[in-house]
Amino acid sequence: MIDGTYFSDFCQLNYFDNDLKYLQYFDIVKKENYLDYKMGLELLKKAGLQVSSITCDGHKGLLNAISEIFPNTTIQRCVVHIIRMSNIYLRQKPKYPVAIELKEIVKKLSLVNSYDEKEMWIQSFKNWEQKYYHFLQEKTEHISGRKRYTHRLLRRTRSLISHAMPNLFHYLDDRKILKSNNGLESRFFYLKNNLRTHRGLSRKHTKNFLSWYSYFKYRG
User: Fold this and answer.
1) 0.85 surpassed by pTM
2) Where in the sequence is the domain holding 59, given as residue range(s)?
3) Pairwise CA distance, residues 125 & 123, whole Å
4) Higher pLDDT, 88 or 196
């Protein structure tokens, strides 16, 4: 599992081996980006780490780094991340049928545990795309005279799912592949809870705390 978690003005990147329950590498950076992800993967490769699959949220910089450093590695898109981001785009209580229907389809994504269920889910998404194709093509003319897509959040949700689709169901081929980064997310939760007990730390001391916590929690 590879993911980043954000603090006030910086980010901690985590490379976690779920089989060993071991944090292989972590780095504190300004934000998630291609170069820092690439450096982390290069260090793991030089250390002789054999990577068969990586579960991640699909950050573009990370995907590019993986394809360059570990080109033959299976990439599994985090199912929970797809659901979470879709719900953000579609809002908690959408009013229109097009959004309500898509929200219901997304909700069922977490229940896909077989090839038959996979095909049924993909077909339901494709049916939704076909049903509302013209609706999603609608444009609105703004004061500037420029036309933009009217239903941008719906289109964004559709693009999120469509781009993730090729790497969304690898966990069905190999049960060792994690379908989500939930395990890492829970570790982020405990990390931040521990940090809250030390409110008032300077930026430098906060980074030191994160480094020592990660070291003793998973490496010591």
Assistant:
1) yes
2) 2-77+180-218
3) 5
4) 88
